[in-house]
Write a structure and sequence with these properties.
By secondary structure, this protein is an alpha/beta fold. It has 3 helices and 8 strands; from the N terminus they run βααββββββαβ. It has a 5-stranded mixed beta sheet, sandwiched between helices. It is globular, with a radius of gyration of 16 Å. The protein starts with a strand and ends in a 23-residue tail after the last strand. 27% of the residues are buried.
């Protein structure tokens, strides 16, 4: 099997497993889980994917929120290295190069997901796997359920994939 998930959840039961604390599905993470399952399962190489993995410490170099622990939405291991994926769903918008959740016209500032993913990457590299020197450590952000048309200078628009594309 080219892809193995940790934990391995039944593909058709994800709406009951990947949920918020109140029991409602986290559709963004479910979409990415299924996308990874489908795409990586068709690969000729082996992949390991961890969903919702936590570490009891966080990088001191890349930690603007001064978090004590680290929670990754997805961690992918391939023979070339590691990839951290931060997933943002729901009503995510940008304004003046800052990120917000918007609900019922009320905006709540959120951490820049690109900086968040970068911090998690450095936590892996500098804190968790510090002895590993010969592989890549990479990060990505996914906006699978976001239909907002991003207008920002924070990233290259040609490299952005959202529910809007």
């Amino acid at each position: 099997m080219p892809v193995q998930f940790h934990p391995s959840n039944p593909y058709k039961q994800l709406e009951n497993i990947i949920t918020k604390k109140n029991g409602t599905p986290l559709y963004g993470e479910i979409v990415i889980y299924r996308k990874l399952w489908d795409d990586l399962d068709a690969s000729e190489t082996d992949w390991h994917v961890w969903h919702d993995i936590s570490f009891p410490r966080h990088s001191s170099k890349y930690n603007p929120k001064k978090k004590n622990e680290c929670q990754l939405d997805f961690l992918i291991l391939h023979n070339q290295g590691f990839l951290v994926i931060e997933v943002k769903g729901g009503n995510v918008i940008t304004e003046n190069n800052s990120f917000f959740y918007e609900k019922n016209g009320i905006k709540t500032r959120m951490q820049n997901p690109f900086e968040q993913a970068k911090g998690y990457k450095y936590t892996l590299k500098d804190e968790i796997f510090q002895q590993v020197k010969t592989c890549l450590f990479c990060e990505a952000v996914a906006f699978p359920a976001v239909t907002y048309q991003f207008e920002t200078e924070l990233f290259d628009q040609s490299k952005l994939w959202t529910g809007h594309n």
